[in-house]
Amino acid sequence: MMNTKTFTSVNRVIYDDNYSLKQQQKSSFINQFLKGLLSAITLLFFILLLIFAENTLFGLGFGDENKSMMISKSLNAFFDLHSPKYLQLNFLIVFRFFILSFTLFYTLIKNFTNLYWHRATIKKYLPWFVLYLVIATISFLLFFTFFSVWPKEVFNLVFLLLVLFLLNLSYEIFNYFISKKTNPLLYDNYKNLIIAMVFQALLLLFVIITPLVWINTGKSPNFLFVDNRFYTRIVDIFTVQSGKNFIILIAFFFFLITFIVLANTNFFALVINKRYDRNYVKNNLWFILLLFSAIFIWLLRVFAYKHENENLPVGNNHLLWVYILQSFFAIIILILYMVFTLKKRLSVKSSLNTLLNLVVTQTILSLSLFLVTLFNSKSVVSLINVFITITVQMSVFGIYIFQNKNISTKLLVLLKVIMILIILTAAIVGFDYLLTSDHHNNYLFSNIQPKMNLVQIMLLLNFSLNFTLISYLTIKFAMVIFKINKLNKELNNEKK
Q1: CA distance 423 to 76
Q2: pTM listed for this prediction
Q3: Domain map of the chain by residue range?
Q4: Fewest CB atoms within 10 A around its CB: which of 74, 131, 138, 312?
Q5: Nearest-CA neighbor of 124 among 14, 30, 250?
Q6: What whole-number distance in Å separates Cα of residue 284 and Cα of residue 111?
Q7: How many other CB atoms are there within 10 angstroms of residue 294's CB atom?
Q8: Do 160 and 103 meet the contact criterion of CB atoms below 8 Å apart?
Q9: CB-based contact 412:282 (threshold 8 Å)
Q10: What is the pLDDT of residues 388-415, one digit of tens each?
């Protein structure tokens, strides 16, 4: 009888283990499928938005001028703030862009993040996956279909944020009860959830009420900058020097920053409890790779924009061809890095050495690109150099991350910041080339600073970040060598 019970118990344990293993494998398959589907949709969304950027992101629309947010089918007046008419049109374009972009990016990133957190409970997360994807798709489609120039209609886009908040609220409640079972120590306290949701609601309320007040305090809801008391009051606060206005500004920014911090209480709680580990950051890098892939494909399209005065000379301007050598230099650096890295793999290597090699390579690339762009005035040359160099930089990052499995979380976060900066630089160069094309003739990014344009500022920032990192590593490397030498001297003295 005892043997029969023991045999039954053993069978039960084996069955439970097999069932659990099958469930994990099934959840892993579903998770990988959803991640692949989301990746394909994300890449498609970004590629289409960028290829049709002048029509979608800048609001030119499709078809005749009646379906455009600009007066003419050109971006020549984009960010022209010299008249109330252009000021209002540009404000509405920027407002539309920020609302739709925020909703699109937030929902896509949220889905990628949640797929990581719910690897074991993926089936239960499926409804939220679909709903977040639906909101992302709506935002994407509105970029292609919504081109209203009426303030009230454009301001109605904020209600997308209300829908997003309600979805977030339902997800956070679901996540709290699910995570409470798997990680009771971290999710035992529901106060963080309540604080985050309350302050998110207050921020949303501010975003919704502000446009409503704006359009209802003027003589006409169709005019935002003419005979509008709200606009006049805002201008006075920022321009009229008085103690009252100073206190209002300080109080506004203080409460805004406080509300933003408290609205992200859950995030800070996870950071403090070290839930954002190396694997989580690597998961984020996948989204960055998708974004870079879209930028890479789009830049190939950007080369097609006509610049009659920017054609490359055929043998009559040797200096320009010297500038283009930056691209060949970047490729040579990549080859040398790959050869050196492969050679090092055959011998024992330290993580500090490999990191130093990475940072030196990135610093050389960012410095050479900045210097060439600083002295070169041809947009097409800058576009070629940036296109090649950033591709090399991202390739170097990819090689380093692929070959080093035990990168610290802090370093991964820093590399992530540098990658985002590289992508932003590439996007700005692409948009600058689009705006300065013959059809649009807009030099917005070139007129921000008298001595340096926005592209050069971004490249300088990229170099500065790499230079700061290499300075830190050089000091750390010197300290390690000093400690080793000191230890060797002590050992030699003991032997004597």
Answers
A1: 25
A2: 0.85
A3: 24-278, 279-495
A4: 312
A5: 30
A6: 11
A7: 22
A8: yes
A9: yes
A10: 999 999 999 998 888 887 888 888 888 8
